[in-house]
Write a structure and sequence with these properties.
Layout: E1 4-6, H1 9-14, E2 26-39, E3 46-56, E4 59-71, E5 76-88, H2 96-105, H3 126-148, H4 170-176, H5 179-194, H6 203-216, H7 220-229, E6 249-252, H8 262-265, E7 274-277, H9 279-285, H10 291-317, H11 364-374, E8 380-382, H12 384-387, E9 391-393
Parallel strand pairs: 1-2
Antiparallel strand pairs: 2-5, 3-4, 3-5, 6-7, 8-9
Helix pairs in contact: 3-5, 5-6, 5-7, 10-11
Length: 410
């Protein structure tokens, strides 16, 4: 049974959040046993099991299960003193053999040192945690309120904590917020609605949250997916031209088809559909008018990830998207269109963060496509900051083939 070992503070802080169902058991490993506080906010239903070492003759002899509980979403859970904590889907088998192996080898292979808490520091007040979550969600509702101030025709107050709130207009949301921000706002609205009957939420904030969810209902799955995977990325990527190495901009290869809703078209802004090309090289390659050049360049650069994106593009055009596509677990494209790992084109939530193409899987067909797109019979270098090692394109006049170096090979 495969597992996912979370030994870093960052990995433990994310855990099972933003997943509809775990693809593999999560094992939280710690350098020493201690009581810890977990939460299941933004998590699916989980079975949480904790293991601690059983001490005999002043040393830990074997593992002992000290906690086993089915936990619904939106709960805080106090875990007793334990070395390993496991999260699995209800009904799935526990990876007990894997945990046993980790326990037996922990003396030789020590786990990463990190905070002695799971998802949160155990010393942090629960009230402070809840206040931070509510404050963030209410702040999103205030942004919705302020976006409507100029278009609301009725007499509304200027403070969010009054008893009157504007009527949410979907067109205002579309005009004021990009799709990924609408997804984050809808997520905050759902959080407030879930706790409306438990905590004293300001009435205007509750009213706005309900109206936001009602207005966004037709595309709720898509904007929530955009909130996970549609965040801006261009400023974080190297901007060296793929062809000459000069300063460049990331240019899209495919455009959204006419008639595609804005709520689905955000995928065309993903890096898998873009190539860094400077103005001079774009002119020389006739980038804006030559679809074959654009497709070869993006196909060669992004390999298996562009192939997965292209399957989604064609499936949408042909109206053949899977009916049971879970956009929260696979926000980029359906599971059937990509592999199991980021390099192989996975569209899963765990692989949704925008990443440069360094390390993507490329086959011979991808390397050939990149050569076709970029070769002009002169010496070219592949920018180091984009893919790592330099890749040299041989002069077409002196070679019958144009091989790429190992940085593009598997």
């Amino acid at each position: 049974m495969s597992i996912r070992l979370l030994a870093s503070s960052w990995g433990r802080s994310i855990g099972a959040m933003f997943q509809r169902r775990l693809s593999e058991p999560l094992v939280f490993g710690y350098p020493f046993a201690a009581s810890r506080l977990f939460h299941t906010f933004f998590c699916p239903p989980l079975r949480i099991v904790a293991y601690d070492g059983c001490q005999e003759r002043n040393h830990f002899d074997h593992l002992e299960k000290v906690f086993d509980l089915l936990v619904p979403p939106w709960r805080f859970v106090r875990i007793p003193k334990a070395l390993f904590i496991v999260e699995v889907n209800p009904g799935d088998n526990l990876p007990e053999e894997a945990v046993k192996v980790l326990f037996e080898n922990r003396a030789k292979h020590s786990l990463s040192q990190g905070p002695d808490a799971g998802a949160w520091e155990a010393s942090v007040s629960l009230n402070h945690l809840l206040f931070a979550l509510f404050a963030h969600s209410v702040a999103d509702m205030r942004r919705v309120y302020e976006a409507h101030q100029k278009v609301v025709t009725t007499n509304v107050s200027t403070a969010l904590n009054t008893s009157v709130s504007p009527v949410v207009d979907l067109q205002v949301l579309k005009g004021r917020f990009p799709v990924w921000q609408r997804g984050r706002i809808a997520d905050s609205a759902g959080f407030l609605m879930d706790f409306a009957g438990v905590y004293d939420i300001p009435r205007p904030a509750f009213s706005l949250a309900r109206q936001v969810l009602q207005a966004e209902t037709p595309f709720l799955d898509e904007i929530l997916a955009a909130g996970i995977a549609g965040v801006p990325w261009q400023k974080d990527f190297a901007n060296e031209c793929l062809r000459c190495g000069r300063p460049a901009s990331w240019r899209p290869a495919l455009s959204a088809p006419s008639g595609m809703p804005l709520e689905a078209a955000w995928r065309y802004l993903r890096p898998e559909n873009a190539v860094p090309i400077c103005h001079k090289c774009a002119t020389r390659l006739d980038w804006n008018h030559s679809e074959s050049v654009r497709l070869d360049a993006v196909w060669g650069l992004w390999g298996m990830r562009f192939e997965a994106f292209l399957q989604w593009h064609r499936a949408w055009q042909d109206n053949k998207l899977p009916l049971l596509w879970d956009r929260c677990e696979y926000p980029l494209w359906p599971k059937e269109f990509g592999g199991d790992a980021w390099a192989d084109g996975s569209g899963a939530m765990k692989d949704a963060d925008p990443r440069p193409p360094r390390g993507v899987r490329r086959l011979k067909r991808h390397k050939d496509a990149l050569v076709r797109a970029l070769n002009t019979g002169t010496l070219k270098t592949y920018p180091q900051r984009i893919c790592g090692k330099l890749t040299t394109f041989m002069d077409a006049k002196n070679a019958t083939t144009l091989p790429l170096t190992s940085s593009l090979e598997q």
